[in-house]
Amino acid sequence: MVDRYDRQTRFEPLGTEGQDRIRTAHVLLVGCGALGTSIADTLVRAGIGKITIIDRDYVELHNLHRQRLFTEEDAQYKVAKAKAVARYLKKVNTDVEIDAYVLDFQVEEAAKFVPEVDLVMDGSDNFEVRMLVNDAAYRYGVPWIYGGVVGSYGLSRSFMLDDGPCLRCLSPYLSLDETCDNDGVIAPAVQMVTAMQSAEAIKIVSGNKEAVSERLRSFDLWKNETAAIDAGRLKDEHCPTCGPNPTYPALFGEKKGKQIRVLCGGDTVHVRPRERKEVQVEKLQNVKHSTLSSVRLHEDVATLNYEGCRVVLFKDGRALLHGIDEGDRAERVYEHVLALID
What we know:
Layout: H1 6-9, H2 15-24, E1 26-30, H3 34-46, E2 50-55, H4 72-76, H5 81-92, E3 97-102, H6 107-113, E4 119-122, H7 127-140, E5 144-150, E6 153-159, H8 167-170, H9 180-183, H10 187-205, E7 216-220, E8 225-229, H11 249-252, E9 259-262, E10 268-272, E11 292-298, E12 301-306, E13 309-314, E14 319-322, H12 327-341
Parallel strand pairs: 1-2, 1-4, 2-3, 4-5
Antiparallel strand pairs: 5-6, 6-7, 7-8, 9-10, 10-14, 11-12, 12-13, 13-14
Helix pairs in contact: 3-10
């Protein structure tokens, strides 16, 4: 019987030795949307030993045009993305160990997961998480691969923790806060970015680090443009992450209280509690209240209508409130819903 990785091991730079190294590698994937699903799919099919997936979100219908591995049924039932991906990929390759967590990647997760892996992959979609991944990678000595995509434009870079700049150094020159919520995105641009990220990942975990490119690579598929920039000259010699006296501000900065953030698009508010706590969302099914309706549970997520907005409540205490564009009102609705459970 032909080995499932036969065509991969026939590729001379990999061979059976490289495949054996892939088989023992452990990769952390932060974010499992458009970038993350494609990366996870590629690495699991390549035979990665273990992949740990962390994502805070759930599947929605507008995800399906670009986010692989999800179905209309996943969107209908608001399935947590990490769980949906893990369920699918366990059917693709039973030899791969897949751990999936429905969590908001914060300092606690960075300290727990990053030191245990060989490589961190960026599948996130916001500046804050990327800075945290960057600081954690340098703090714990783990290489990581950045990727971003908006519209038809994408870019990627591998950070090998050498003398080159880190993402914090590059951030003044990059538009890290642009999102597809405002500017849209086409699926081929997603696949282009994840092809670059996944190829670099396979080089690293197979022991071919000399083949890794540390150039900042970008493209615009609509304008037929590509570029590969030597970013070495952009290094900040006083960088608090990769400089001579690092303080890792994303890891050890001032502790934040409850975070209430209006998301891109303007009609959804994300609420994150001051301290993570497990919320017994299943209790909502037994609550009778005049302004509460359409309660639905699925694993780690509860959805409901309350005071004219749609609330998505996670077991770790986070919530997304749709149909609200004011932080104060969102906080009030959030506290009211939690009070119904208590």
